Amino acid sequence: MYVILVYDIGEKRVGKMLKHCRKYLNWIQNSVFEGEITEVKLKEMVSIARGIMNEEQDSLILFKSRDERWLDKQVIGVERMSTDTFL
Amino acid sequence: MYVILVYDIGEKRVGKMLKHCRKYLNWIQNSVFEGEITEVKLKEMVSIARGIMNEEQDSLILFKSRDERWLDKQVIGVERMSTDTFL
Q1: Which of A9, B5, B17, B48 has its CA 20 to 30 A from that of A76?
Q2: ipTM of this complex
């Protein structure tokens, strides 16, 4: 399935979460990821993410679609994270 | 149509952009909005957003879907911006 992931994570935990999410999805903006992922891999990703985040302070939202073609993406301004290579 | 909007905006401009986007969509996370919007209203929103942002530094991504039912949303952790009322 196709997934958009957005998070709002406390500063202390955000680096770890970024590295974690990049293992599963494409990083497209500061705290936004997208990509194709299986149900099994998504469950694994969420399970590990729960361990990283503080569920009383942090937020992670997933938008799931069976097919990427149902979504039309438009980028305005900077196309790609220029910091994509610094990690 | 149903729209998800995510932005990464320089600190000096982010307050203005937040206020602007909230006029059109629902604020669901730090820099994430969603909602039903017409094509005409969306064009108006993007046009004004371009005037607020620095297109060489800032980024705004729109995911558009004809129907919200094609997307399944899952929230992990904090459900709503606790700062929603401070503006």
Answers
A1: A9
A2: 0.85
